[in-house]
Each structure stands twice: as structure tokens, then as C-alpha cells.
Amino acid sequence: MTHYLSIKDIDNLSVWVKEARILKSQPKADKNLGANKTICMLFFNNSLRTRLSTQKAAMNLGMDVMVMNFGSEGWTLEYGDGTVMDQNTSEHVKEAAQVVSQFCDIVAIRAFASLTDKEQDEAEVVLNGFKKYAGIPIVNMESSVGHPLQALADAITLEEHNSKERPKVVLSWAPHPKALPHAVANSFVEMMQLQEADFVITHPKGYELNPAITKDVQIEYNQEKALQDADFVYIKNWSSYKEYGKVLNQDPNWMMTKKKLGSAKFMHCLPVRRNVVVEDAVLDSDQSLVIEQANNRTYAAQIVLKKILENL
Ligand code: CP
């Protein structure tokens, strides 16, 4: 594998999950694979889990790690071709990406959606700009459209806790005061499309995700109905896709409660706003898998980096 940009870069999800679980049992088994190799992690946005888990994964593989908070410490980048750079951008991605690649063997990038310009966001200008000009493998640490490291960790967590041949998994929208991107939900949907499961998405009308991603996944606008007999409930807020980046609804009745959860396992990528997205009683119960999801971020990143290193 050369790049890890989306779930589509996984050639066999169940094999990757199995391999990641083996890595989890022996995290240092490949500690020499990354010797004399460097990963450079560029953050255009904040992070806790992605930053620490990807760094931990690289360290488990014996890599050197460089981290830069590009959003606050780097020059403001230009992505357009032929732009007269007499406004706010200081450096073109053509130079920046080539310069970064002088110092490392893999570049990992986090660059969220603007949520103001759908066309620009869907073009993934940061990720694709670096891909085009860096000439070295690129790892997506959450882009405008996807968060494939999170979805891979979620697949590992599902596998660890599933006891059924065909579990029922529900992705439910929840309220949030701010406009959030679609990336986590998109990649979770793409990952679930590779699973043997009854998968349902539930959200208020107007919060349909990109239909090119959801395709024929069942959408149920009645949350109570969607949650019936669920084995796993994945809660996430996202802003409207159709009315791009808008918050249309903050109905607190969509918050996940212990009563609504029933006997299902609760999943969320974190960070999460307590008692807005989900009530304390869920997060503090043994039905919550959120800490295990966060822990599995290391092994998701490690299997991705391992496959890239094996191909260098
Ligand atoms: N879930 C996730 O990506 O967490 P961070 O934003 O803290 O990295």
C-alpha cells in the first residue's frame, strides 16, 4: 500500500482487523521495521487521540516521529494553480510538500472541512496537494471527507465485542451546538458497508449524508424505531450536507440516554459533549466502548503504517 487516504485503501477489512488484533497482542513485534524511517505528522486542526495514538503506533514500529501544528505554527498555504499570491497565503503547497518530504518518509495530515465551501472540501485540497507534490506516502488523520483511521479502529472494536453473525449496528445523529464535519460518519458508513451487519442510519430530516457515500444504506428518521434490537449504537453529530455546514436542529430528544440504549453497546469517536450528545449514565456505564475505541486507534494506525513501511 502506498497511501492511506480513505476506507477504499483497505483491500480486505476482515484481514486488516485480524492483523491489527495480532499487533495489539504483540505491539513491539515489528519494532525494527521502521528503523531509520521518519513520519512527519502535520496538524492543521486540534487532536488528542489521533496525535498520541499515531505517534505511539510509529514508536511501536521503531520510527522517528516529527509533529508540527501546521494550523497555528506553519505558513498559510496556497493550493490554487497560478494564483497571484498577494493576499493572505504565504507559501504554496508545491514547495511546502516537497520541503516536508526532504525530512521524512511518510507524511500524516489532519485537515478538517471548512464547511463553507462544499466543492473545495470535497476536492480534499490539503490532502491531495500534499499527495501530488510530496512524492511520499500520505496518511489521512482526518480530512474534509473522511476519518479512515477512526473507522478502522471502530471495526477492530466491533469485532472484539461482537458475538453475532449479523449484528444490528445503528449510526445515530445527536445534537451539538456547533457545526461539525461529516468525516467520521462518512468513514463509519463506508466501513460498515464492508461488514456483515444490519446497518441503519437515523437522523432528523435534512441531515442526510452525501448519498454518494450512503448509497443504499437504510435511513430511518424515527430514532426509537431505528434503535429497536440494536447491538451497537454509534452516536455522532454532523452538520447538514444538503444545506452545507448548517446546524438545522438541536433537538435534545436526539441525545442518547441509557433508556434509549437498552442493552446495546455504545460507541463514539470522542471528544464528546456530556449531557448534550450523550448522557453521563451511558458514558459511565460498562456498555460504553469509547475508551476501547480510543485505545484501538493505536493498532489501526500501526497496521496502516506497517503496510506502508513494508512497501517502501
Ligand atoms: N477521534 C479523534 O479523532 O480524536 P481527536 O480529534 O482527539 O484526534
TrEMBL record:
Any one GO biological process: L-arginine biosynthetic process via ornithine
Keywords for this protein: Amino-acid biosynthesis, Arginine biosynthesis, Transferase
Domain Aspartate/ornithine carbamoyltransferase carbamoyl-P binding: 3-160
Reactions listed under catalytic activity: N(2)-succinyl-L-ornithine + carbamoyl phosphate = N(2)-succinyl-L-citrulline + phosphate + H(+)
Residues annotated as binding N(2)-succinyl-L-ornithine: E142, H176, K236, R273
Its biological purpose: Catalyzes the transfer of the carbamoyl group from carbamoyl phosphate to the delta-amino group of N(2)-succinyl-L-ornithine to produce N(2)-succinyl-L-citrulline. Is essential for arginine biosynthesis.
Quaternary structure note: Homotrimer.
The protein, known as: N-succinylornithine carbamoyltransferase
